[in-house]
Amino acid sequence: MRKFVIFLVIAAGAFFLYVSQLPNDSGDPEQVLPDVSGRNYPADGSFVVDGDLIKFNQGRAEKEDEGGFREEFFILDEMGVGDLNADGKTDTALFITRSAGASGVFIYASAYVSGPIGYKGVNAIFLGDRNRPQKIEIEKGGVTVKYLDRAGDEPFAAEPTVPKTLELIYQNGEILER
Predict the structure, then answer these.
(1) Burial class of residue 24, CB neighbours in 10 A (0-12, 13-18, 19+)
(2) Model confidence over 52-93: pLDDT tens digits?
(3) What are the backbone angles phi and psi of residue 110, rounded to the nearest 5°?
(4) I want to staple 80 with a disulfide (CB 3.0 to 4.6 A). Which of 36, 58, 137, 174 is the partner?
(5) Is-contact 121 137, C-beta < 8 A?
(6) CA atoms within 13 A on the CB side of 32
(7) Residue among 82, 101, 102 at smallest CA distance from 90
(8) Three-state DSSP class for residue 58
(9) Could you tell me the pTM of the whole model?
């Protein structure tokens, strides 16, 4: 019986080691999703979107606009982590979407930044309508945003195919275009 228990423990350990080596679901075995667990996770943070303070609950928020229309906001899964304000703590850069039931889906970039007591969401930078966010990273104290957009003469119904990169910096409690 003792040999059987030892065999089970060894088999279970080998199985868990094997499973931990499998590639993630992204299709890219080298991609490691950022650890945004704990206090620096922005799903319940507040962010300033077009001048309005939007409070998120589990990555989503709702607001009624001046005309009585309900707007929905979502924090997308793609996030980047790093130290944005040089305080030695991990900050998070993220994408936010805003829609009001019409065909427009407005995309923003923002950040969730550490402070002396806790974390705080900052202003959101408008990227466009119905474009396609690709990647957001914090590197060297700045945020690099990559997304696909349309050429200036293309309609919003056209598939976004034009690669764009936007560089942002964190300064005086907000993010700004570099």
Answers:
(1) exposed
(2) 999 999 999 999 877 788 899 999 999 999 999 999 999 999
(3) -150, -175
(4) 137
(5) no
(6) 6
(7) 82
(8) coil
(9) 0.76
Token couple for 90: 């991990």
Rg (CA), the chain: 20
DSSP of 95-143, one letter per residue? Answer: EEEEE-SSS-EEEEEEEEEE-SSSEEE-B-EEEEES-EEEEEEEETTEE
Range in 24-33, 108-117, 144-153 the model is least confident about: 24-33
Cα 60 → chain centroid:
12
Residue given tokens 């009585």 in the structure block? 68
| CA dihedral over 65, 97, 47, 39, signed as positive or negative | positive
Domains of the chain, residue spans: 42-177
Contact 168, 142 (CB under 8 A): yes
Q: 170-174 long-range CB contacts below 8 Å, 24 or more apart?
A: 170/84, 170/85, 170/91, 170/111, 170/113, 170/122, 170/141, 170/142, 170/143, 173/122, 174/122, 174/123
Which of helix, strand or coil describes residue 39? Answer: helix
In angstroms, the CA 103 to CA 1 distance is 66
